[in-house]
């Protein structure tokens, strides 16, 4: 007997495998945009009877021509039963079975509502008839609304003829072959654990920390709808979607509805604890805490405002990246969840799995160039002081970023943008660049260069408030950070020469980093005053901590490298502005500044430290101090807040370098 096809409905049936209504299609983050699907509308009684009459007549004719003789065909009953079941006319469908009307009607109604299914479609298959017994097969397509998945299976049931009327021989297996007495269907969507963000050696950059799973045991709830409503009132989640998840879950298992950080738990639990049937479980997972928060980003859970803004359907276990690499690599880190249709017995235990959605897989870790040991050492050094500060470190030989550490302390406010994207005046820390420009003109370290209290260049006045000297040289002026000396000496530089040095240090270069980052900027200069201002790290020059670290790295390596944050990325290189004797002299200037000058606080024992310090005014009573330098192959940049023009960043740099050895 040929397949009679999908049963009629008001809308043309979708072929199995077509996306369920509301499912996202296409896009890298499509799986996060599943929306709840509305329940399908049913045919009127008049339309249904008309359709069944046509099916009965057509099927009877087919049965007659196929030699059924005086025995009526079972197919009209199969068609009518499947159509009534599909249309939601459970009492009418029950009347076509051998079971009790009330019992069968209830079981048919509950079968897919337990799955929170939005629609179901049945296609009649082969009907085999032998005397007063028959076996019918059908294909069911069930839209699992909350999961955005489509479950397709083949069913089969027996029929018997009584007094010339065919009836479905009722048993729970009519609904699905896997169901036995007392069993019910349930759906479970399991999200894989969010994949980690790793350091250069594959070590996790997300550390284990406490989190709280707020949830219920569905079978223990007196009123699931009331619990969902109260829970939604506190969290802002969709009541309809929450109750759908509760009703679709296995009744005896703990169903986690929401994951909270300790701070969120403290804020919400006083209200959540009053929700009937709600409990919590304390866990220790790699989810919320990282020593490299700026680069890594944060993770939001089921009640995240971003998920709501995107219209993503509520799904227990869903996570979303909030900033940093967590957001940028959301799809890679989350993987794809697996939705399962399971059989739950009368005791509430899962006894069988009928179907698993295809394509479920774990997330893929993202490996960075960061060094977790150095990152932790940096965070420890930052935590030991009250001032707010930032530390950047990178491999001078490759441009690989090793540390991006930032901490907002009790004293001072860090500039916006963080270690990567802040735009800060560098002050005399920028004299590394202007000294390179002077050395390239043949001006040596011992060149006489008085350090005076006041210098006037091109009509602009520059001042220096520390110890001055009329017998100073370029070397001592650099070491002491004498701005007036560099302002005066800049007269020997043309605007083009200073600009060339800035560009040779990569200032203004286009980096290919995954996160927003600032390589620095220096306005076009024309007159002597502009050149003098930029030579002292003012005049509109702006740098990020990462940008200044790349300046130090170029001196250390003798070659420029663009910074990289991901292990799979490649740095671009360029020739440093100095080489040979001139590069050696610039390194000597930086060593002198640490050994005897303004950066002396960074002079720790062991391998020599090279660097330069600077202080810039950030407000009425606030300052930002810089240290920019290197030790061995590691270049660093430190920015620290303060209430006085003290070179505090150099001491912090020393503490960090001492900690990493």
From TrEMBL:
This is Penicillin-binding protein. Its main location: membrane. Pfam families: MecA_N (PF05223), PBP_dimer (PF03717), Transpeptidase (PF00905). Residues 1-40 are annotated as: Disordered. The keyword Membrane applies. It comes from the Bacteria. Residues 10-19 have a biased composition (Pro residues). It comes from Trebonia kvetii. Keywords: Membrane. Gene3D superfamilies: DD-peptidase/beta-lactamase superfamily, Penicillin-binding protein 2a (Domain 2).
């Amino acid at each position: 007997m040929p397949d009679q096809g999908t049963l009629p409905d008001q809308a043309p049936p979708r072929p199995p495998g077509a996306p369920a209504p509301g499912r996202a299609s296409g896009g890298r983050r499509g799986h996060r945009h599943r929306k709840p699907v509305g329940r399908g509308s049913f045919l009127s009684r008049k339309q249904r009877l008309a359709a069944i009459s046509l099916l009965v007549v057509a099927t009877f004719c087919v049965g007659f021509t196929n030699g059924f003789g005086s025995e009526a065909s079972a197919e009209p009953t199969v068609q009518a039963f499947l159509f009534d079941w599909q249309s939601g006319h459970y009492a009418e469908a029950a009347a076509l079975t051998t079971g009790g009307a009330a019992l069968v009607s209830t079981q048919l109604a509950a079968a897919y509502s337990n799955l929170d299914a939005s629609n179901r479609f049945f296609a009649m298959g082969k009907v085999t008839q032998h005397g007063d017994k028959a076996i019918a097969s059908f294909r069911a397509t069930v839209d699992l609304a909350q999961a955005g998945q489509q479950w397709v299976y083949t069913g089969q049931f027996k029929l018997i003829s009584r007094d010339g009327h065919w009836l479905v021989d009722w048993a729970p297996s009519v609904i699905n072959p896997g169901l036995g007495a007392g069993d019910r269907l349930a759906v479970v969507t399991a999200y894989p654990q969010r994949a980690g963000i790793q350091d250069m050696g594959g070590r996790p950059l997300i550390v284990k920390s406490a989190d709280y799973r707020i949830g219920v045991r569905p079978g223990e709830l007196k009123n699931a709808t009331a619990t969902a409503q109260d829970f939604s009132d506190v969290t802002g989640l969709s009541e309809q979607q929450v109750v759908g998840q509760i009703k679709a879950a296995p009744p005896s298992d703990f169903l986690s509805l929401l994951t909270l950080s300790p701070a969120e738990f403290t804020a919400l639990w006083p209200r959540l604890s009053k929700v009937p049937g709600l409990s919590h479980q304390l866990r220790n997972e790699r989810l919320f805490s990282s020593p490299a928060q700026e680069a890594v980003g944060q993770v939001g859970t089921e009640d995240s405002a971003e998920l709501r803004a995107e219209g993503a359907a509520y799904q227990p276990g869903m996570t979303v990246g909030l900033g940093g690499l967590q957001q940028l690599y959301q799809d890679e880190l989350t993987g794809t969840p697996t939705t399962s249709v399971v059989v739950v017995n009368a005791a509430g235990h899962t006894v069988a799995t009928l179907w698993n959605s295809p394509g479920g897989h774990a997330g893929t870790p993202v490996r960075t160039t960061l060094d977790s040991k150095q990152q932790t050492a940096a965070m420890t050094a930052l935590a030991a002081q009250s001032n707010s500060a930032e530390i950047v470190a990178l491999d001078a030989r490759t441009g690989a970023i090793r540390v991006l550490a930032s901490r907002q302390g009790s004293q001072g406010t860090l500039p916006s943008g963080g270690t990567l994207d802040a735009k800060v005046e560098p002050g005399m820390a920028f004299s590394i660049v202007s000294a390179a420009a002077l050395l390239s003109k043949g001006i040596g370290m011992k060149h006489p260069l008085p350090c005076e209290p006041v210098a006037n260049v091109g009509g602009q006045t520059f001042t220096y408030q520390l110890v001055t000297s009329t017998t100073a040289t370029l070397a001592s002026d650099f070491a002491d950070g004498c701005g007036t000396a560099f302002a005066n000496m800049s007269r020997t530089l043309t605007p083009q020469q200073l600009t060339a040095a800035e560009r040779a240090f990569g200032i203004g270069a286009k980096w290919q980093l995954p996160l927003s980052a600032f390589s620095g900027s220096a306005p076009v200069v024309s007159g002597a005053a502009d050149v003098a201002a930029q030579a002292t790290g003012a005049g509109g020059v702006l740098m990020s901590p990462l940008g200044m670290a790349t300046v130090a790295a170029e001196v250390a390596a003798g070659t420029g490298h663009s910074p990289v944050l991901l292990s799979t990325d490649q740095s671009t290189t360029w020739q440093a502005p100095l080489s040979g004797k001139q590069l050696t002299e610039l390194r000597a200037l930086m060593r002198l500044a640490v050994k005897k000058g303004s950066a002396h606080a960074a002079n720790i024992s062991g391998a020599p430290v090279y660097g330069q310090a600077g202080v810039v005014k950030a407000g009425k009573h606030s300052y930002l101090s810089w240290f920019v330098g290197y030790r061995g192959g590691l270049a660093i940049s430190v920015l620290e807040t303060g209430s006085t023009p003290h070179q505090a960043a150099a001491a912090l740099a020393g503490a960090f370098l001492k900690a990493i050895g």
